[in-house]
Write a structure and sequence with these properties.
Strand content: 15-25%
Keywords: Carbohydrate metabolism, Lyase, Schiff base
Largest sheet: 6 strands, parallel
Subunit structure: Homotrimer.
Pathway: Carbohydrate acid metabolism; 2-dehydro-3-deoxy-D-gluconate degradation; D-glyceraldehyde 3-phosphate and pyruvate from 2-dehydro-3-deoxy-D-gluconate: step 2/2
EC number: 4.1.2.14
Distance between the termini: 30 Å
Low-confidence stretches: none
Number of helices: 10
CATH architecture: Alpha-Beta Barrel
Order of helices and strands: HEHEHEHEHEEHEHEHEHH
Bound molecules: 2-keto 3 deoxy 6 phospho gluconate
CATH superfamily: Aldolase class I
CATH class: Alpha Beta
Helix content: 40-55%
Radius of gyration: 16 Å
Family: Belongs to the KHG/KDPG aldolase family.
Shape: globular
Length: about 210
């Protein structure tokens, strides 16, 4: 497991899958299915009890992957994620305490933002790689295009409602570094352990990105 910056996280993969893992036994097969499809940056949401153990398992077994903790909403979770080996921490939003805490850690923090004021607040902490959440509900690519005219120093990871049908709108923007989403990981496929299906969907997503980005 190596140290990475937020810029390296964004550069490492044009797609960051948001992984909801209910059972730690699914962690490795799921991560390997995504990696087989060409995706090796992972956001494991802390919305489940199995998340921390899943981060630890994937970090240990897949040293070439970049493993992140998602939905981190307080410093306690932030620290637990770091202890498990998370290489980046990402949130749907931020709080003053999370921003302060992040300043004491080397592992990069990618806070979620939706407004120009939140973006400016993040910038004041030196954070310029941000999650735009929930992307589609907040106006999607047109909003990012408008906001980046004023704040061109920010790179975004739009997440929330991003899927194959609207991917092109986001990837057309220079301010979009990567996109987050779940469309290549249907919950039913995890439940039925259909790992080949997840590899297939990941491959398709990567091919689509390659064709859009040229
Ligand atoms: O918990 C978080 O921090 C999140 O990022 C919430 C969702 O998992 C993403 O918004 C993915 O949303 P969909 O791709 O629309 O399924």
């Amino acid at each position: 497991m190596s140290k990475v910056t937020a810029a390296q996280v964004f550069a490492a993969s044009p797609i960051i899958p948001v992984m909801v893992i209910d059972d730690v036994k699914d962690a490795l097969p799921l991560a390997k299915a995504l990696a087989d499809g060409g995706i090796n940056v992972f956001e494991i949401t802390l919305r489940t009890d199995a998340a921390i153990a899943s981060i630890a398992a994937i970090s240990q077994e897949m040293p070439d992957a970049i493993v992140g903790a998602g939905t981190v909403i307080n410093p306690k979770q932030y620290q637990a994620a770091l202890d498990a080996g998370a290489q980046f921490v990402i949130s749907p939003g931020f709080s003053p305490e999370l921003l302060e805490f992040s300043q004491t850690k080397e592992v990069p923090y990618i806070p979620g933002v939706a407004t120009a004021s939140e973006m400016i607040t993040a910038l004041s902490y030196g954070l310029d790689h941000l999650k735009f959440f929930p992307a589609e509900a907040n106006g999607g690519a047109p909003v990012l295009k408008a906001v980046s005219a004023a704040l061109p120093q920010i790179k975004f990871c739009p997440t929330g409602g991003v899927k194959e049908a609207n991917l092109a709108n986001y990837l057309a923007l220079d301010c979009v570094g990567t996109v987050g989403g779940t469309w290549m990981i249907p919950a039913a496929a995890i439940q039925s352990q259909s790992w080949a299906e997840i590899t297939q969907l990941s491959k398709k997503a990567c091919e689509l990105v390659a064709s859009l980005r040229g």
